[in-house]
Structures are given as C-alpha cells and as structure tokens.
UniProtKB/TrEMBL annotation:
GO biological process: cellular response to iron ion
Protein name as it appears in the record: Fe/B12 periplasmic-binding domain-containing protein
Coiled coil: none
Pfam families in alphabetical order: Peripla_BP_2 (PF01497)
Annotated Fe/B12 periplasmic-binding domain residues: 96-367
Gene3D superfamilies: Nitrogenase molybdenum iron protein domain
InterPro entries xrefs: ABC_Transporter_SBP, ABC_transptr_periplasmic_BD
Protein source organism: bioreactor metagenome
Family annotation (PANTHER family): MOLYBDATE-BINDING PROTEIN MOLA, VITAMIN B12-BINDING PROTEIN
Length: 380
C-alpha cells in the first residue's frame, strides 16, 4: 500500500534523524552584547531571535548538546551590511525557498509565502494543493530524497535558501550547496517536545521573510485556541485509558512520556500508561509487552491502518485489544491521498489547536458534540 510505505518512510526518516543528528552541529558561541531586542519565544527550545540595528541574529540551538549552537544566521536587507563572523549572512526577505520537509509547508502557508517555494523533496508525499499544483505546472522542482538531495538540481534551481531538518550538518551534499552560495537553513521543529513548541517555529520561518509581527499574531491566536480547548478537560474526572502507535515489523513504537504526542494525550484528558516516562521520542516495544500493558485500553489512537480487517490481518494479536473489539480505533489519516501524502504530517505541526480538538472530540465527545474531525478518523 502506497500510503503505508509513505508513512513508514517518514517514520524511519524521523528515527534516523534522532540518531544521526546528535553527532553534528557547531560549537561556536559568539556573543554579541549590544542587542537591541529579542523575540519572545515561550515554548520552543530550539531557536532564538535577536534584533540589532542593521541585522537580525537567528540562532538554532543544538538539542543534542546543551549550551552549544547548531547554526547561526545573520539576516540583512542589504548585502553590503557587515555582520559578525561565525554565521551565515542571508538577504531577507527570501525571494525563493526550497523546503525539504513537508512539515515546513504550513508555516509558509500561514505566512502567505507558499508562492516563494520553487523546490521540494519527494513530490509523491506532498499533500498541500498549492504545492502540488506548482509541481504539476513545472514551477516547483522535485529535488529527490531529502537524505540524498540532488545537488545538481539544487544548484540549477538556485533558491534563495534551502530549508532542511537538522540531521547532519556535515553532510557532503549540503556542504557543496553551501559552498555554492546557497544558504542552508536548519529548521529543527521536529525536535521540540511540546506541540506549541513545534508550532512556535513559525516565528523562526517568519524571520527569513521579515514577517515577525505577523508570526507573533498567528501564533498567539493558535496558542489561545489550544489553551482554551485544553481548559475544557483540565478538571474532568472520567479519563479514558488510551494506547497509541502501530506494530511495525514486530516492533511497536509507542510515544514516550515527554514526547509531543505524550503531551497531547495529557492535554486531551486521558490516562496513558507511559505518562510518567521521562524520555522523548518513541519507545520500541514488542507486541507481548503492549498486550500486557494496554489490552484493556478504552481507545486506540494514531493506529496507522485504514480498516479493522486490515489491522487484524496484519497481526492476529491485534484482535486481542479491547479497542479493536469495541471498535474504538482511530488513525490520523482522514486527510490522506491515495499516494500516501498526509496532511497530518504537514499542517498539524503548525496547528496543534486542531489536533488537540480532534483528540478531545474522540476521547470526550460530550465536550465537543458538533465538532467535525480534521485529522482523526475511526477505522471502519
């Protein structure tokens, strides 16, 4: 199934990112003392923005080495502007961009900058209609696999910047691209452990378009909606037991307690077996372990199958779980194309308010009785 292969590709990419990225990044820690102002970053841990009279300094923190810097950018409106050493000077606002990850699209959409996209990676997993149309019309170039990006195509396209997930800064292909004068912008939103932290990276993207005020306004609205809906279940007493994830080739990847998905479960008013776990990312478990801990769960979320029959055929043990027997199994595939492109991977990153609303509507339908699910869908 194309959609399942696409999901597996994305999942494995994120798994590889979490392993390979820890060995990369710069340790340069240039300090500039005459900062005029700093952008207020509330939830995100991965970046900071400081404003100076002639330029803006954007720092990407190294999430795998506390206190060190992954990348530094100096944003200028005139190429003649002098900036400190130890960073990449970028002319803003960007005229064109090549975002390598689908998780970057919604930020550009909310900022009204999708028209600047001239290159992407893996056209077959793109959901966004505007980007798909650009690909079909030849205005947007497919640069291949993000892990093995087609350097020649990037150089020929020559975007104002290439936006990448920060998994391997010393990658030879990215070094060639940088040496050719194309800035590589590392967007590490995927490393945040909170939903609002991931969404706050819209401020990071906005800095490269000189749209910080717009980003602040957009994020504030999303934050308020998220917290308003979260408040509806804060004092709820009847919390269903939930399970999540899927069995992939004998290994069940369950959200860790401090992962953004683990936080989503907590904010939605549920009981989750690993809620007290202090790790991030995913917990690789065998099916027997999951059966012991989750066989009597009330609801199964983020199950990456389309139907219950398909789920059971993949492994007969799935039929032993209570949510399968009571038909309370949900995926996040409602907005998925036959190709496997899934809007859950795209817009949900920037719209945690919608994702939280979906999960609350599933767990506590009485709270949102007329709500129409955006990403979640019950398995048939």
């Amino acid at each position: 199934m194309k959609w399942l292969r696409s999901f597996n590709y994305i999942f494995l990419c994120l798994a590889v990112l979490s392993v390979t990225a820890c060995s990369t990044g710069s340790n340069k820690t240039d300090v500039i003392s005459d900062s005029a102002d700093s952008s207020v970053i509330v939830y995100a841990k991965g970046f900071s923005i400081r404003y100076f009279s002639d330029y803006t300094q954007v720092i990407v923190n190294n999430p795998w080495k506390s206190g060190s810097i992954y990348a530094t950018y100096f944003l200028v409106k005139d190429t003649q502007t002098e900036v400190p050493e130890g960073g990449v000077k970028i002319l803003v606002p960007l005229k064109t961009i090549a975002p390598a990850s689908v998780t970057h699209y919604e930020f550009l959409h909310l900022l009204g900058e999708l028209n600047t996209v001239t290159g992407i990676c893996q056209a077959d997993i793109v959901y966004n209609k505007e980007i798909k149309k650009g690909i079909e019309e030849g205005r947007i170039t497919d640069l291949g696999d993000a892990f093995h990006i087609n350097v020649e195509k990037v150089l020929q396209l020559s975007p104002s910047a290439l936006m990448m997930s920060g998994y391997n800064q010393k990658d030879a292909n990215l070094q060639r691209i940088s040496q050719a004068g194309i800035p590589v912008i590392y967007n590490n939103e995927w490393m945040e452990t909170s939903l609002l932290g991931r969404a706050e990276w819209i401020k990071f993207v906005a800095a490269f378009y000189d749209k910080s005020q717009l980003a602040d306004s957009i994020f504030s609205n999303i934050e308020n909606r998220y917290n308003d809906i979260k408040q509806k279940v804060t004092n709820i007493k009847d919390k269903p037991d939930i399970m999540a994830g899927s069995n992939f080739r004998g290994t069940w990847y369950m959200p860790a307690g401090r992962s953004f998905m683990g936080q989503l479960f907590a904010d939605a008013g549920s009981r989750y077996f690993y809620s007290n776990d202090t790790t991030t990312g995913s917990l690789p478990l065998n099916v027997e372990k999951v059966l012991r801990d989750f066989s009597d769960a009330d609801i199964w979320l983020n199950c990456n199958f389309a139907t219950l029959d398909e789920l059971i055929k993949s492994d007969s043990k799935h039929a032993l779980f209570k949510p399968v027997q009571t038909r309370q199994v949900y995926n996040f595939n409602k907005r998925m194309l036959p190709s496997g492109a899934n809007d859950f991977w795209e817009s949900a990153v920037a719209r945690p308010d919608l994702l939280l609303s979906d999960v609350i509507a599933v767990l506590h339908p009485e709270i949102l009785p007329d709500y129409e699910l955006v990403y979640a869908e019950k398995l048939k």
